[in-house]
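Consider the tokenized backbone below.
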């Protein structure tokens, strides 16, 4: 089972590299719980829609991943996303540690961790350097992400 779990995580990140949000979503259970420092906790389709939105908006996007490890029903991986942040045009290189819980061959929990201040310094420039560590700026980043996802989810699907 452990090898199957590692293969699932490999498939997820290979789909991510191809910007294939549908293949990524197919790796998730319908009741998946995702969390990260920007979007907080997302459940079910909301998590898959986050990937759909991010990949639809991605500019100059590339992704690498490494160190997939699987023990029992859990897995971990490291990944690096490089892209232009759409709101500022600044280049971001975000290094992320991921933890997964797997059930019946699908991801039921996906938790990404990274330093939000490091991200804000890259994405926001001088403002992020000076104020990105504050809860005020970090909460604004989270609010903008939530509003962006909400607006994306309300758009008519073609």
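A designed sequence for it:
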């Amino acid at each position: 089972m452990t090898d199957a779990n590692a293969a699932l995580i490999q498939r997820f990140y290979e789909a991510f590299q191809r910007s294939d949000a549908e293949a990524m979503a197919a790796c998730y259970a319908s009741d998946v719980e995702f969390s990260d420092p920007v979007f907080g906790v997302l459940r079910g389709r909301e998590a898959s829609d986050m990937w759909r939105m991010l990949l639809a908006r991605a500019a100059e996007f590339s992704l690498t991943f490494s160190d997939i490890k699987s023990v029992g029903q859990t897995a971990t991986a490291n990944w690096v996303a490089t892209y232009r942040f759409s709101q500022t045009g600044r280049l971001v290189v975000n290094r992320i540690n991921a933890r997964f819980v797997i059930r019946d061959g699908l991801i039921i929990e996906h938790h990404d961790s990274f330093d939000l201040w490091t991200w804000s310094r890259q994405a926001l420039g001088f403002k992020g350097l000076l104020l990105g560590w504050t809860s005020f700026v970090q909460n604004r980043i989270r609010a903008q992400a939530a509003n962006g996802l909400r607006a994306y989810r309300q758009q008519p699907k073609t």
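The chain has one domain: 2-115.
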